[in-house]
Records
---
Amino acid sequence: MSSENKIYFYPVWLRIWHGINALGIIILIFTGISLQYSNPDFHLINFKLAINLHNIAGILVSLNYLLFFFGNLITSNKKYYRLKLKGLFRNLTLQVSYYTSGMFKNQQPPFPLSEKRKFNPMQKVAYLSVMYLFVPGLIFTGLALLFPETIIEEVYLFSGIFLTAVLHASLGFLVSIFLVVHLYVASIGKHPAKNFKSIIDGYHDISGH
Ligand code: HEM
């Protein structure tokens, strides 16, 4: 569905998922950092409160992930997540060159958005990695840490819980990096607030792309 220069890219279910996910992940990042660097003399957030908030937000993000997974599975939104490997490297290079140079020279984007193309190649690779590798990995390791009796005791002399915790924290770090880049990329455009509006009202404005 489109009107003039606007394309309806973000259906209601996707916006609900995105809002809950964004809030949940921000709580997880702050409480996660507080727990990672916890120190009896200084707490970013009170230790017990950080644990409780982290557990609640983790369960919320996990349940909400089901909305994303099945929403994408049963609606046409999945078509935007199909990745063609042929020419991918060239397409990614073109997009990186646009973000690092072309954009500042007022050049046209190499992959303008349309009804058929919601994401440029870089967004597609980032969204696929985050939503189908990093976030599920975080959920899986997080649930394992919530129920540590399910974790293998020892792997090559290393404690299973230790390895799970390292993997969990590393994935959390990757998702945090994604969020910073995501916010920066979302602010690129004619007006910094334009894209942020689209994930609230559903319509993406393609004028000026
Ligand atoms: C304050 C936090 C956030 C803000 C303001 C924000 C903003 C946005 C905006 C403006 C869009 C639409 C434009 C675009 O596609 O780039 C978007 C889409 C998206 N965001 Fe975020 N985001 C936030 C957090 C997150 C987090 C934490 C994740 C995942 C861990 C995430 C994953 C996605 C995905 C997968 C899409 C594309 C959804 C689709 O159209 O299928 N976002 N976000």
---
Amino acid sequence: MLDAGRFYEMQALQYLDDRDRSRVGVEIVERWARSLPFGTPVVEIACGGGYPITQVLVDSGLAVWAIDTSPTLLRQFRLRFPMVPTQCASALESNYFGRTFEAVISIGLIFLLREDEQLALLHRVSEILEPRGRFLFTAPVETGAWQDVTTGLACWSLGRNAYTRTLQHMGFRVIRTHIDEGENNYYEAEKIGGPVW
Ligand SMILES: C[S@@+](CC[C@H](N)C(=O)[O-])C[C@H]1O[C@@H](n2cnc3c(N)ncnc32)[C@H](O)[C@@H]1O
């Protein structure tokens, strides 16, 4: 089965064409971004081409760093946001610029990773977030595996209970969840301690 990183690189131009015109998620990300102090350092994991999500983060006055596995999407991203430091790397292997952040956002990625990879990524996020740091990511409420009808990619969801429990183990509390106009579910969390395992 094709992995998500290779899929998005192969489909990069088509994906850009669709996503550049989509406003899905903008309102939720805008509210989250505006709740953070001006200049907050945030890393965007799986930034894609940067429209519309990175644009919202930048317009909200956040200091953005970004990573993605797709060289083609990142090339476009860098033309659009030349001042944003970027890294072409997997979320699981990135060194996250060798620093910590006060906020992390990841839209449209976590459920594309296998269950063990999701746990590893949530752990990594807890390592790179400062205490009281904020984390927003999309993943379903339901539990299970499925094949995405549009992309054909395999997807996995731990489900709301397991995401909440896992986040608690990693030192987070879930503040709230949101649903956008495309029926995507968002977990909004805050780091209140360190991982307990
Ligand atoms: C559904 S798109 C979402 C892009 C962007 N966040 C948005 O909302 O428009 C998924 C993105 O994840 C990237 N990606 C896939 N696997 C990845 C991985 N292991 N690490 C980092 N990025 C990855 C793809 O290149 C693609 O840009």
